[in-house]
Prior knowledge:
By secondary structure, this protein is an alpha+beta fold. The chain has helices at residues 8-33, 52-56, 132-139; strands at residues 39-49, 62-71, 74-83, 91-97, 100-106, 116-120, 128-129.
Amino acid sequence: MIDTTISKEHVEKRVDDWVKRIANLYSSIQEWLDPLPSYEIKKENDVRMYEELMQKNDISERTLTSLEIYFEGSIVATVKPIGLWIVGANRRVDILLNKGAIMLVDISEHFEAPIWISHQRPKTGKGEEFNKEYFFNLLGVG
């Protein structure tokens, strides 16, 4: 019989890794937008994370950060972490836009470098690699 028990230490390690992945994704977005003076980013500590595996392993909830992206003073996008344990992927972040929403899923293996794939919501097709060019296209940056 295979032991499928997930240890508290493993869950804590996954949560810590998720927090780092979010920070790294946000750093990339900040780097991409830094040369564009019309864009401003504000961070908000407004996402509560207390997923089932955290509850079962008596791990305290975490507060995660979302990004608000402004163009010339008006909000154009919000980047918000949705969940760590997602069916069919390892992690999910949504980008909420005035014209709809994009779902980013990380399809990498646990603890390996992230592979962010973007999908229109609702999800159709296999998605596209999330990168600077794709992000700028979402924002309409020429």
